[in-house]
Specification:
With about 220 residues, the chain is mostly beta strands. It is built from three helices and eleven strands; from the N terminus they run αβββββααββββββ. An eight-stranded antiparallel barrel has the order 2-3-4-5-10-9-8-7.
Length: about 220
């Protein structure tokens, strides 16, 4: 009888298994799997959330999930939510050599020199960026000030110290279908990250598995 009661209470005391119902709930150690996609680096691939960063703008805060898979490319994921709309932004940083192949450099430089909604026209598509870019882009954001923070600040506000975060200017150009995006982040001293991004529906993440310990009651 004693053993029976012990078994019953042991079952009642078992911690609740953590469940993932939306990509916004992801945390370090969790695993995601994409469905079939045109981008070979993503299609039917699994990734672990290896790190989490935060982008802080005046009107929004974005959580960036750093994805680690079986490919050498670093993949970055954000969940963008505006009103009732939600979508995935999946990104890769590209090199100067990639930019030179994709665009005329004089035309690309206009992103940083003019607020007049610069148009970008792709010249070539490198094989390793196949399905990550498109033919034409229109600039929408010019020199927006943002701050990059290492770490996850969803449960708290980002630090407000004067030296907290790395300040940068943000530039964005997007295609007419609002699917393909070129982004640039210009940091102090001129260091610049250029990013190719695709916007995809939430349902492109086919499965999610929690990697963190169960939630204690």
């Amino acid at each position: 009888m004693k053993n029976l009661f012990k078994a019953i209470f042991s079952q009642d005391d078992k911690p609740e298994t953590r469940r993932l119902t939306h990509p916004r709930e992801l945390t370090t150690g969790d695993i995601i799997k994409f469905q079939y996609l045109p981008q070979n680096e993503l299609s039917n691939k699994q990734f672990e959330i290896s790190n989490i960063n935060t982008y802080d703008f005046e009107d929004r805060k974005l959580t960036e999930f750093v994805l680690r898979g079986d490919t050498p490319e670093m993949i970055y994921l954000t969940v963008d939510e505006t009103g009732d709309e939600a979508f995935l932004s999946v990104s890769r940083k590209i090199s100067r050599a990639d930019v030179e192949q994709l665009f005329d450099l004089d035309e690309f430089a206009e992103l940083f020199d003019s607020e007049d909604h610069t148009q970008l026209n792709r010249q070539n598509e490198p094989e390793h960026l196949k399905s990550w870019t498109t033919a034409h882009y229109q600039q929408e954001i010019y020199a927006e000030v943002g701050y990059f923070h290492k770490g996850d600040f969803r449960a708290s506000g980002v630090p407000e110290d004067e030296d907290a975060g790395d300040e940068f200017e943000y530039y964005l150009a997007i295609d007419s279908t609002r699917t393909f995006v070129i982004e640039a982040e210009v940091y102090d001293g001129g260091e610049t990250d250029v990013i190719v991004t695709i916007r995809r529906p939430i349902t492109d993440i086919e499965e999610m598995w929690p990697g963190s310990p169960p939630i204690a009651n």
